[in-house]
Amino acid sequence: MREKLLGFFAFSAGVGILVLGLRFFNWLPLMVQVDSLREYQDVEEVKAALPIETIFAPSYFPQNLSWPPSRILAQGRPFPAVVMEFEKTAGKDIMLLISQSTSEEFLPEEKIKIIDVIESVSYPVKGRNALLRVGVCQRNEPCSGITWKEGQYTIHVLAKSTPFELIKIAESMLR
Amino acid sequence: MEFSALLNSYPGSYIVQSFSHSVVAAFVVEIAIKAWGIRNPTVRQRFLLVIIVFPIFSYPVYQIINPQRSSISFRLNALLDSSRWLDMELWGVVPVRYGFFLVFFLTAVIFFFQELVPILRHTYASRGSEISGERAEEHPGIAQALKDLPVEKTDIYVLEDDDVVLFSTTGRKGSIYLSSGLLGILDREQVRAAVAHEFAHVIRSRRPFLVILFLLRILMFYNPVVLMEFRRIVQEDEKICDDFAVSLTRNPLALADALRTLYVTEEEERPGRPKNIMNEMEDLETYSHRLNILGRIARLEKGTANTGDKGWFAIVLTLGVVFVMNYFIV
Asked: B2 and A23: CB-CB below 8 Å?
């Protein structure tokens, strides 16, 4: 029994060291490669750290959303990408998600995911040909998303709101 | 499709994560074996099985538990996000992911030529040809040596050959073959021990366990950790057969002496042999085989056969830790 217990302590210590080793191994690439995916405090910080000159942010903002973004994620490699999440004014729910990326495959929609698309139509946004999707998200909440190409970037805007509100937000991102 | 998109696809994620999961499982298993001082080869084999079998199922099971496990949010809070390493570029030019996939490719090649082809060839050869030899019962020296050994359900043949030959065929009707050359260099007790060891292989090959394990192992053909750990399982199997032989003959020293006589030769100097990677690899393999044999001899001489409990507590705990830790490794 004593041997078993000692073995248990030795095993726990070994696993603890392994966890620390894995944490270090996870941190190392961030130190070596500064432009890998990480969290930033604000848009200016992203611009200073990564070669992304234009970050598309809306000038129109519904009252129920809080500014600045609650979280900004960005990377320079393997392809440039920025993700901004906006919370509800009262609460912690993510209500708006904006992503821009040079990869067409990049769609970080885990926080707002249209589970059931009710309608998917082409919609012009200030002369750009966009794809508007209207449907239902998790917990049966109505939500909508719009996607278009802006130069080298593919832009996705997803919101837990009506398509009218979403279009206003999307149009305010463009001149 | 971009290469990074391929990595983020289901098959790409499966390959990458099964590799990461087997690395972590190997570390945890090694810690457990050291912490509890597990020496029993049967128990050690059970631990090593975790490294082979777990990564086959881990990724799909985790994805069923949490489909959002591959999301950016999950990755940012993960214990280890493999994409950070795969997306890295050495000196801003060479993507690390190519290095990973080169390792996977080389592992697949090694598996194909060193494991799969020899097994298929052996299976084909043993089906197509009959090896003729004198039955052990009709050979006066052997019949005397094997008296009292409970090997009556296995056919044992003596081949007229001056070379040292000792092997068994597997399957439901496994047989043992030894040569007259072998009988010339081993004494009676050593022959008994050697045949008892081969008999253990025949008995073990009748169980479907090893076949199922090999079929599972094939699924991880690209995984270098599984390649190494499967070889360790095979080495542990030799120790299990040693223990089985000792339980029949009650003479561990005879088996140790037989191993020494058969496999531990003086290291030969081969002048004029060109130094190239193939020769170096061959030397390394011979050296590792020699170390393995010496380890088995030392074990038999020390008498550290099956001791201790079955290690179920340690295995269950290890499996639990492997499962929880790997959930956070994406």
From this structure: no
Terminal-to-terminal C-alpha distance of chain B: 21
Residue B177 dihedral angles phi and psi, to the nearest 5°: -125, 135
Closest partner residue to A14 (CB to CB) among B5, B31, B89 is: B31
Nearest-angstrom CA–CA distance, A55 and B115? 54
Q: What are the structure tokens assigned to A61, written together?
A: 């903002």
The mean pLDDT value of chain A amounts to 88
- Span of A5-9, A51-55, B128-132 with lowest mean pLDDT: B128-132
Where do the domains of chain A lie?
A: 1-32, 38-172
Q: By C-alpha distance, which of A33, A83, A36 is closest to A55?
A: A83
Among A3, A15, A29, the residue with its CB nearest the CB of B84 is A29
- What residues contact residue B18 under an 8 Å CB cut-off, 6+ apart? B55, B56, B58, B59, B220, B223
Is the CB of A77 less than 8 angstroms away from the CB of B87? Answer: yes
CB atoms within 10 A of CB B107: 20
Kindly report the three-state secondary structure assignment for every residue of A108-161: CCCCCCCCEEEEEEEEEECCEEEEEEEEECHHHCEEEEEEEEECCEEEEEEECC
* A15 contact residues in B (CB cutoff 8 A): 28, 31, 321, 325
In order of A170, A172, A173, B257, the CA distances from A56 in angstroms are 9, 10, 6, 78
Spell out the CATH class of A38-172.
alpha beta
> pTM higher than 0.90 for the full model?
no
Q: How many CB atoms lie within 10 A of CB B94?
A: 11
The rounded distance, in Å, linking the Cα atoms of A170 and A156 is: 9
Q: Is the ipTM of this complex over 0.90?
A: no
pLDDT digits (tens, 9 = 90+) for B94-152: 888 888 889 999 999 999 998 888 888 877 776 656 667 777 777 777 777 777 777 76
